[in-house]
Specification:
alpha+beta, 176 residues
């Protein structure tokens, strides 16, 4: 597949995120299938980073924060699914006590209604990715994960594998 064809596919997937109504929360593979389309190809990460500053609203509410996800937020979440070692809050706040106190609220307070902060965050993610990309190791994951909230797993439960078949780990975990 050519580079421009691949980029068009990525653009289309991210553009379709405006129609996401539910983001993953709990269990692991819950949320809209449109979100999981963003995590099917591990090579999409640079394109996701390029869209972090996109403030186009989606239909998905941010639980407990009273706002809706923007395309850029969806991209940040997708990066986190592909690279579980990626912690957005660490690129915003260096005081671990603040992070412990506010959790992901650190992220939402920083980017909500502030395009300049969002652009700055995007720069930080680009810089972080440039620093870690050669340390990323693909980990195959053939486990099955729940797609809906179930108390017990039964034969009727919907279980799926991760869309990309795995995720990246950072060889030498980097804080920033």
């Amino acid at each position: 597949m050519g580079c421009s064809t691949q980029k068009n596919i990525y653009k289309s997937r991210v553009d379709n995120a405006v129609n996401i109504e539910r983001m993953p929360y709990f269990p692991e593979l819950s949320g809209d299938s449109l979100f999981w389309e963003l995590t099917k190809d591990k090579k999409i990460i640079p394109y996701l980073i390029e869209r972090i500053s996109d403030t186009t609203l989606t239909k998905a509410p941010v639980l407990f924060f009273g706002v809706d996800y923007r395309i850029g937020d969806v991209c940040v979440s997708a990066i986190g699914k592909l690279i579980p070692d990626f912690r957005a809050v660490d690129l915003i706040e260096s005081d671990q006590r603040v992070i412990d106190d506010k959790g992901y609220g650190v992220y939402w307070e920083y980017v909500r209604n502030n395009l300049e902060n969002r652009k700055e965050f995007q720069k930080r993610v680009k810089k972080w990715y440039q620093r870690v990309k050669n340390k990323l190791v693909w980990v195959e994951d053939n486990n099955l994960y729940a797609t809906e909230d179930v108390v017990e797993v039964s034969e009727n439960s919907k279980l799926k594998k991760l869309p990309a078949g795995g995720f990246y780990r950072i060889k030498e975990k980097s804080n920033r």
